[in-house]
């Protein structure tokens, strides 16, 4: 099965009305857990790497890590995606590594903390689309910035995100502006701001409409029925993983993530890609804490990592099944990036002919 572009995968998800979890990969063990779950459920996969993950692993290592997954699971369609690329150079470097999709996050300036202007966002995103489509690679853009509607504050994770209190208008994507952005850039997918945020500390209570604006997604889908919407910061922050960490020496304050039923509601309203990172980190770190608490004399890192891989697998199996991905890997006829390049070229020619 060739590497698959994000566009083709999300087109199929839209046709069959399911959503794709997009899992951030940090190391070999997170990758193993995700891929084992995909194999068990016969699901296609979106593997993501943030800029900080690329720095942590080193580009050469992470490029080969993803290639190993493609070779190990040739029957599973795999999209490899750059998460939150802060510049065109970052996105081009990801394409050079073999990524089949990039996110050009022009909602912030290149410093990854200053909200950008609409014109800046359009300019850098359009540039990324031009470079990516010439290679058959897909592009995700973003309108609005991630942050808490509950507190009115931005969030910062892995060096990315606005800080401090901001105008709440920045924390909710405007559907009319989103439609204009899509028309001006030609993005394949659009990340929207609805009150979600990166990290574990999303909400102090179970989110309702005042702090998780799912109605914005419904309005966006009505305005852009043919655009694939993306939810960032969509980890559920499970209670059992919070307890696992805290029972074994951790100190995670009580917090709430995005309930799975809200994600499922979003999928029915046009969300096709759902980003998940925090839940995987919690599964690994909680498992490590418990293992070394139970085995204080151990220095066996292989034995210590195995429970974390198992917990990641179980979590990903649940997401694949709840989001409707299970069994879909067997019915996708993946196009190569060369074929996708022809698709984009033909679409551009048809657009100019109108």
What brief labels describe this structure?
single chain, 354 residues, alpha/beta, TIM Barrel, two-stranded antiparallel sheet, 13 helices, 10 strands, 47% helix, globular
Shape: globular
Write down the domain tally: 1
CATH superfamily: Aldolase class I
Helix percentage range: 40-55%
Beta-strand content estimate: 5-15%
Q: For the largest beta sheet, what order do the strands appear in spatially? A: 1-2-3-4-5-8-9-10
Report the structural category.
alpha/beta
The CATH topology is given as TIM Barrel
The number of E-state strands comes to: 10
Average of per-residue pLDDT values = 91
Indicate the radius of gyration in whole angstroms: 19 Å
CATH top-level class? Alpha Beta
Secondary-structure element pattern, one letter each? HEHEHHEHEHEEEHEHEHHEHHH
List the helices and strands and how they pair.
Layout: H1 6-16, E1 20-24, H2 28-41, E2 45-50, H3 51-57, H4 59-72, E3 78-85, H5 88-97, E4 101-104, H6 118-133, E5 138-143, E6 147-148, E7 153-154, H7 175-185, E8 189-192, H8 214-223, E9 228-231, H9 239-247, H10 260-268, E10 271-276, H11 278-294, H12 301-322, H13 337-353
Helix pairs in contact: 2-12, 3-4, 5-6, 7-8, 9-11, 11-12
Overview of the structural elements:
With 354 residues, the chain is α/β, with parallel strands linked by helices. It has one domain: TIM Barrel. It is 47% helix and 13% strand. It contains 13 helices and ten strands. Strands 1-2-3-4-5-8-9-10 form an eight-stranded parallel β-barrel, surrounded by eleven helices. The chain has a two-stranded antiparallel sheet with strand order 6-7. α8 (214-223) links the parallel β8 (189-192) and β9 (228-231). The two termini are 35 Å apart.
